[in-house]
Specification:
Elements: H1 32-36, E1 41-46, E2 49-55, E3 61-64
Antiparallel strand pairs: 1-2, 2-3
Length: about 60
């Protein structure tokens, strides 16, 4: 059985190319896939307000209140 290590998605760009390593003390990076979990949009509750995070057909993200 031929197995290869899986790439670390937290250090890859949308096209699979490696990104720069996070700076020491920087906030942890989350992938949009981990937030959206296969959905086109999710609702985020922040400080008592609801926000909508959605992806466009072009693969961009929009955050609205």
């Amino acid at each position: 059985m031929n197995t290869q290590p899986l790439p670390n998605p937290s250090h890859e760009s949308a096209n699979g190319a490696p990104e720069h390593a996070p700076r020491e003390g920087a906030a942890p990076a989350l992938t949009s896939d981990s937030l959206l979990q296969g959905q086109k949009a999710v609702t985020i509750s922040h400080n008592g307000s609801l926000y909508r995070l959605q992806t466009t057909r072009q693969g961009k993200l929009i955050l609205t209140k």
